[in-house]
Amino acid sequence: MSYELVKGEEYPISFFQANEFMTDLHSMSTPSAARSGLVCLKNAVLISIPIYTWKQLCDEDRHFDELAKALKNKQFSKLYRRITRLIKGNTEDRLQQLNTIFPGILNVISQHLLANYFGVTDQAISKATSRLK
User: What's the total number of domains in the chain?
Assistant: First the structure.
């Protein structure tokens, strides 16, 4: 799970599946430091590529640059889909969809983080999760 800290509060940005590319789009697109953190919900192996190495690879190999652009576009598309899902549907439907994509996630993530992820109150998440169980 990637997240940003806002006034000391964790706000989940996205969840990732095994073997999925993850990046901080802001730092990948600008010469700025990363603004998001990463929490592993299961045992995982992470491969970190420093931004200067990433940019050097892109400069040296046109194919790697094309791969980098494709990965960035995929990440952007994923965030765009999340935004459209937040606009549409109710909290229960969105929770069900998240649990379908990431089976068992409702048992791993605190209701408070889920509320932050969906932009709803803790009470709304509590009601929605109780109806799903």
Answer: 2
